[in-house]
Amino acid sequence: MLQTLLANGIPVHLKGGIVGALLYGATMILRVGLVAIYQLAVASFPRKQD
């Protein structure tokens, strides 16, 4: 608990060590990947012009 309270310049979500860093990295990769896939899917099916 004391480790998360120290002001050593490390963001709080990375203070859990290597496991926290891996989870954070995996989350960011999944988020960016899924947003990119969603944007490609939306761009692939343009709206119909009436």
Textual characterization of the structure:
The chain has helices spanning 2-5, 18-44. It is built from 2 helices and no strands. The chain is rod-shaped, with a radius of gyration of 19 Å. The model has no long low-confidence stretch (mean pLDDT 84). Helices cover 62% and strands 0% of the residues. It has one domain. It is an all-alpha fold and 50 residues long.
Notable traits:
rod-shaped, mainly alpha, 50 residues
Give the strand tally: 0
Tell the overall outline. rod-shaped
Strand content: under 5%
Distance between the termini: 61 Å
H/E series, N to C? HH
* Overall residue-averaged pLDDT value: 84
Give the class from helix and strand content and strand pairing. Answer: mainly alpha
What's the structural domain tally?
Answer: 1
Instruction: Kindly provide the radius of gyration, computed on alpha-carbon positions and rounded to a whole number of angstroms.
Output: 19 Å
Low-confidence stretches: none
Q: Which percent bin holds the helix content?
A: 55-70%
